[in-house]
Structures are given as structure tokens and as C-alpha cells.
Design brief:
This protein is about 30% helix and about 25% strand. The protein has helices at about 20-35, 70-90, 115, 120-125, and strands spanning about 55-60, 65-70, 90-100, 105-110, 130-135. It has a five-stranded antiparallel beta sheet with strand order 1-2-5-3-4, covered by helices on one side. The radius of gyration is 16 Å and the shape is globular.
Length: about 140
């Protein structure tokens, strides 16, 4: 009669709930390790928060983690906390791309800079964005 908690190492590809579970787990782990309040997590049931206060936001989608904001130091700090936490849980973080819209610099730690080059400097403006790809 008590509650049951499933424990899965993997879920079957194509299973209708697989993506939903992966998305929820990823978003929850990213948010709880970020040190940010829940309103800084961009999700489908609320409007996105303003970036005018220089506090970063988290955009977790499937196996992609994005930390965005207007203060590059704050964005990097949040990204570093979340990535360390995800690695500690066993997630394989395999790509990190840093985009500094103020200075017009795009850098990738994994060498996949050609993927990032599709973005134009004018599109980003003063936005600092870090993209982290997870390997499930």
C-alpha cells in the first residue's frame, strides 16, 4: 500500500514516456545543483524570467544544458556547478561551447566549433550563453 519509486538505468528507446522522464531528471538535477531559485529554470509551464537582473537562467532540454545570462562570470559559475554535479552523477558531459556576445567570441572545448559558427555575433548581442551537451 506504500509508494513505489522506479529505479531504471535506461529506458527503452521509443517508449512514449522515455523523453519525458529524461527531460524531468535533467532539468531537476540542473536546477537543484545551480543554486538558483526555481523561477530561473525555463520550462514549458511558465514565462521565461527577465535577464535584466543579471541572474542566469537554466534551459535544460533533453541532453542539452544551456545556461544563459548577461553576466558571463555568473553564467560560468552556474555552468561549472551544474556540470560538476552532473559528472558526479555519472553523466558524460562531452561538449561545452561558450558564447560571449559582448566580445563576439565563440569557443568550444571539444573542437566542435563549426556547429557554433552558425550563430552570428549580431544575433547574440550582449548575451552570454554556455551550451553543454550530455552523453546519456
Amino acid at each position: 500500500g506504500g509508494k513505489s519509486w522506479p529505479f531504471l538505468r535506461v529506458v527503452p528507446m521509443g517508449w512514449s514516456w522515455a523523453f519525458w522522464i529524461a527531460q524531468r531528471v535533467h532539468a531537476f538535477q540542473a536546477w537543484t545543483s545551480s543554486g538558483l531559485s526555481f523561477d530561473r529554470l525555463i520550462h514549458d509551464h511558465a514565462p521565461p524570467p527577465s535577464l535584466s537582473d543579471k541572474v542566469p537562467v537554466i534551459i535544460a532540454y533533453c541532453d542539452n544544458l544551456n545556461v544563459a545570462g548577461t553576466d558571463p562570470a555568473a553564467v560560468n559559475a552556474v555552468k561549472d556547478c551544474v556540470v560538476a554535479h552532473l559528472r558526479g552523477l555519472g553523466f558524460g558531459v562531452h561538449e561545452e561551447t561558450n558564447i560571449d556576445g559582448r566580445r563576439g567570441i565563440i569557443s568550444a572545448r571539444s573542437g566542435n566549433l563549426e556547429k557554433s559558427s552558425l550563430l552570428s555575433n549580431g544575433l547574440l548581442g550582449a548575451l552570454a550563453l554556455l551550451v553543454v551537451m550530455l552523453k546519456y
